[in-house]
Amino acid sequence: MGVIIVNHETWVQSGMADVNQVPSRTLGFAKVKSFSFLRHSQGTALFLYSASSSLFAPTTISLSMDLTMSSCSLSLLFIISLHIHFPVPTSGEFPPFRECAPFVCGDQQISYPFRHNERPSYCGYPGYELGCDGYNLTLSMMSLEYPVIHMDRNAQVLQVARTDIVEDVCRKSDVDTNLNFTLFNYASSDINFTLFYNCNVSPYSPYLFLCPTSQYGYLVRNADLAPRSPRCSFSALVPIASEALALLQLPGQSNRSAVIEVLSKGFEITWIADTSQCDNCTKSGGRCGYGWTRQEFNCVCSHGVYSMTCDRQSMHAYSATFTALCPSRENLAFIY
User: Fold this and answer.
1) pLDDT tens per residue, range 180-213
2) Judging by DSSP bridges, how do beta strands 297-301 and 267-271 pair with one another?
3) CA atoms of 213 and 196, how far apart (whole Å)
4) Under 8 Å between Cβ of 262 and 244
5) What single DSSP character describes residue 315?
């Protein structure tokens, strides 16, 4: 947020305020470049100033205020109607257009609704952040980290796995697989299983495996548990893709190695975010983003931010309500 303090008498009498005479400071994204008085009648002033922006490129802001003042000692509040447009930058490419470019991690190309977790939040839909160590793509969710094995953009499906269990199926995890259901759902191909360790009663399961501590673990399909649910020291819910179950029946494998292989195949989750608007944006040469001043889809273009596509007629006209405080009769403080 920045604050501009303008001498009231100066611009009312002269009809123009020289930006060089306007004390200003930058506490946020904008710095004033010009300030012009346009109209003053019956106690109402309409004026215009332009600001440069490290994030949004040059910004034009129009303000209208009721200047009827009885006493500044009453700390009168004035309502400002603010309209922000994001026009063509004066030079160079719009920085967010570069920042929101698709990125490659391993053999997967990632774009909206996802973003790299080191990129600005406006490059992706809230909550869809992915990490990349150069080759391996990871999703962090609900205190667990999942390697992303595959992404199907057309079906909006991620294939993910439980790293903690795959690396050591005998580590006795008691952390269930939980999704953030505002972002993802389980795919219909998933089958819920539970890993059990240190059970006082052996659950009925053909998928028993021996751990190095001479203790047994069990992989049990949840549908087979009732009514014989065992009491165990540790258990963890682990979805498994239905097509991976055949690996448990392969000859010549110990149950433990088969269980590890099945778990390493992971399971599928579907993302919920609506990406239907993104196609038209990308076809017009834009890159999809979200947020900015409203919580909604944006088309980030090489020359600015638009509501749907890189057609200038779809340019945003954001509105907001701000408050200006009159600290004295001579000065007005405009807060943007």
Assistant:
1) 999 999 999 999 998 888 776 676 677 888 888 7
2) unpaired
3) 15
4) yes
5) B
- Summarised one tens digit per residue, pLDDT across range 219-263 is 888 877 655 566 778 888 999 998 888 887 765 556 888 888 999
More confident residue, 190 or 43: 190
* 295 Cβ contact partners less than 8 Å away, ≥ 6 residues apart: none
* Confidence category of residue 279, pLDDT binned at 50, 70, 90: very high
- CA–CA separation, 322 and 94 (whole Å): 27
Structure tokens given for 302 = 């090489």
Buried b or exposed e, range 158-175, using 16+ CB within 10 angstroms: bbbbbbebbeebbebbee
Amino acid making up residue 200: N
Backbone phi and psi for residue 109, each to the nearest 5 degrees, phi listed first? -100, 130
Q: In whole angstroms, give the CA distance from residue 86 to residue 60.
A: 7
| Alpha helix segments (H runs only) across 168-322 | 255-264, 278-283
Whole-angstrom Cα distance, residue 11 to residue 18? 9
Look up the pTM and report it.
0.66
42 vs 21: CA distance, rounded Å: 26
- Please check whether residue 146 is in contact with residue 177, taking contact to mean a CB–CB distance below 8 angstroms: no
SS3 call for 104? strand
Quick check: helix, strand or coil at residue 167? helix
Beta bridge partners of 131: 138
C-alpha–C-alpha distance, residues 89 and 87, integer Å: 6
